[in-house]
Amino acid sequence: MIRGRVTGRVWSSKRIETLPQGALLEVEIEGGGRMIAFDPLGCADDEAVLITQGSVAAAYFTKVKAPVDALIVGSIDEN
Known about the structure:
By secondary structure, this protein is mainly beta. About 5% of the residues lie in helices and about 45% in strands. The protein is built from 1 helix and 5 strands. It is globular. The two termini are about 20 Å apart.
């Protein structure tokens, strides 16, 4: 898993029909770098998150074949 922090949202006026309900978020990952991850949880800006990638991310969706390569699977509680 990858740890990151949400830095913003990616807006799209068009999307394919098989993309489930959720948001595309820009995430800064630990160690530098950024990625776009699909968020089914409703995470907020500056929230710490856990991301999974690849076939594990795509396999999360059982009812549709979703073209997702990076998926936010958890929100990290911080003290």
